[in-house]
Amino acid sequence: AQSVSQHNHHVILSEAASLELGCNYSYGGTVNLFWYVQYPGQHLQLLLKYFSGDPLVKGIKGFEAEFIKSKFSFNLRKPSVQWSDTAEYFCASRRGQNFVFGPGTRLSVLP
Amino acid sequence: SQTIHQWPATLVQPVGSPLSLECTVEGTSNPNLYWYRQAAGRGLQLLFYSVGIGQISSEVPQNLSASRPQDRQFILSSKKLLLSDSGFYLCAWSVGTTNTEAFFGQGTRLTVV
Hints:
Helix content of chain B: under 10%
Number of domains of chain A: 1
CATH architecture of chain A: Sandwich
CATH class of chain A: Mainly Beta
Oligomer: heterodimer
Radius of gyration of chain A: 13 Å
Number of strands of chain A: 12
Largest interface: A-B, 25 and 24 residues
CATH architecture of chain B: Sandwich
CATH class of chain B: Mainly Beta
CATH topology of chain B: Immunoglobulin-like
Largest sheet of chain B: 7 strands, mixed
Order of helices and strands of chain A: EEEEEEEEEEEE
Structural class of chain B: mainly beta
CATH superfamily of chain A: Immunoglobulins
Shape of chain B: globular
């Protein structure tokens, strides 16, 4: 069965620190990969997505992710986090109609 | 543009009472529709999805059911709520089978007392 794992449950960083959140997916065929963000009290929003092509994808708010097929990974990065990046981050994969989500990583950025 | 409406935003229901959560999508035809439950530390658990009117796939056996009476309407129901049904329920939609993302509603916080 398709599954998505995220390496970290809770990450605490100071402002201006660099961020990398790990994500691994299980399915070896063609996948669509996503990172969603949920800010406190808000609905899930798409940060970025990978369908094909350049494995380094740019998203909103300075986020990027790199698809590494050999490692089944799709890690999220940001060179310098801000307090406003405090949120929960979900990695997801799509196969057919199904979207499978990881357990989420809570990011707390200290001012 | 497409929008998704989910209501109510919050709901407090006694154990044993029925449940009906509604989700509607505007601005698209024949969407795939989803119900997820979000639990702290466990991410989003897919409960049901539907690729067309009257077509429901259940991912997890439970006390809940789903129906799709119209193309852009998806309803989550229960005949008798359990305490364990408390949680945050999210409706989502997508199109096709690949190369598009899912779009989420605002969610319903259900508390069973």
